[in-house]
Amino acid sequence: MSSDLVIVYHRQPYEEVELDGKIEFRENKSPNGIVPTLKSFFGKVDHGAWVAWKQAEDTANPGFDRVVEIEDDYGKYSVSRLPLTENQVKQFYHVTSKEAFWPILHGFKERYNYDPVDWPNFRQVNWSFAEAAASEAAEGALVWVHDYNLWLVPGYLRQMRPDVKIAFFHHTPFPPPDIFNVLPWRKEITESLLACDAVGFHIPRYAANFVQVARSLTDVDVTERVRVSEDLISEGTALTERTVPTRLSWKGRDVIVNTASVGVDTAYIAERAATDETANQVARIRKEMGDAQLILSVGRTDYTKGGVEQMQSFERVLEANPELHGKVRLMHVSVSANRNMTVYAEVQAAIEETAGRINGRFGRLDWQPISLISRPIPFAELVAYYRAADVAWITPLADGMNLVCKEYVSARTDGAGVLVLSEFAGAAVELGSAVIANPFSNRSMDEAILRGLRMGEDEQRARMAELKKAVEKYDVGAWGRSIDEVLGKVGGSPSPKPEA
Ligand code: GDG
């Protein structure tokens, strides 16, 4: 009961490395994640806590400690890892979260798998997270819960600790009632979210969908609605709402509904892009390319990312435009977060099969249309590819935000390059200056990539300048500040700690 701010997130803020049979904790160096931004909130309080999970079998290792006290540049905080059994991890994470919630959140009703869900197990795991947060939180502390696999935590926590303030952030899209309400646990989940003081989303459309869902299941009242910032509204598209509900009243309590899109560390990426090492790598890539244009596609191996649909578009474009043969290459970086899960193994197999077919159909001794990379590449190398690419082709079928497109823009300090972006990536709301494509339309996909390949330098530079402005405006720091503002409104920590 000692922390003013408790972050509950299934990911750990530290990587565990085994050295001589002993576990050591190392800072997670990934520059592109939001972990450093989350940790920076600990600097605003006297003591913070982070609650994550760890598979329990690891407790057999003598170096394993459930709670680790950390004092670093970010502040003083503890990290507790809930020990979950292998079956709990499978049920809570792989089955319920990934087979039932994930497809619904992204609008794939036909992929939703209800039968194997062990709901009591999901409740139990969420209860354990809530208990861990309750035991860390000081009187009146703020508990900040992340993502759908912890949906029931706010409701349980409200019962355990009525004194704490609770905020929740969704990293995924949030669907409208016709899709969300397919979940049999819809009311339980929604009532848990309404137990929060603030519920957050990347973009206004998801917030509006959540409010529609809440209204379809409960008698919640909308008590405040605001007009969405003009720069998030692109005329002629349906990318965002014009007005959005920002405050609800339910059972006598206020619930703030906020939107704040996660951004990237633009300065870090720009700095990385400007190094000699990057310049050398870019020169090497360009030399390998000869006079062919490079299309770059990066995304986790997931059906939501639309990898197969994109390759099919590439196939149609090659078929209809023989003059492009030998003159264009697609580099597809698709890394699986979890190879053991059947659904991801199937996507990987489909990607490999499609790429193989296209290469077999059009390839020549001196030209392979698609290069497939299925292992993670170091971030520095990824930046070099961002820099070398003529076009970044990012066309998920659904994506909460999508940071890859923002990283691409941040890396293009040379002001050139084209971004072709799906209108169903949350990022499209801010990045209306990209060539926007509808991944459900063959014509839209094919025209967009051709437009990207044929775009002249002046138009590229004009669009990239606009994209850069948006990516800098909505960078990771802005996300932090915007969340800070909401957390301030709910009256909990972190308010700046008094000077010593
Ligand atoms: C979820 C939501 C939301 C990819 N390949 C390599 C590599 N990556 C890095 C990218 C980027 C990250 O992975 C992917 O981030 P995204 O945001 O694009 O997508 P998700 O993983 O699905 O993230 C998403 C996000 O949460 C934040 O709220 O934007 O919508 O689905 O940073 O650079 N990094 C390296 N090698 C690779 O091969 N080093």
TrEMBL record:
Q: Does Amino-acid biosynthesis show up as a keyword for this record? A: no
Xref: InterPro entries: Gluc_glyc_Psyn (IPR012764), Glyco_trans_20 (IPR001830)
> E.C. number, please?
2.4.1.213
Q: Which CDD domains match?
A: GT20_TPS
Where are its TM segments located? none
- Which is a GO BP term held by this UniProt record? glucosylglycerol biosynthetic process
- Enzyme class name: transferase
**A GO molecular-function term, please?**
alpha,alpha-trehalose-phosphate synthase (UDP-forming) activity
Q: Name one Pfam family in it.
A: Glyco_transf_20
Q: Which UniProt keywords apply?
A: Glycosyltransferase, Transferase
Does the record's keyword annotation contain Transferase? yes
Q: Which family does it belong to?
A: Belongs to the glycosyltransferase 20 family.
Q: What is this protein called?
A: Glucosylglycerol-phosphate synthase
Gene from which the chain derives = ggpS
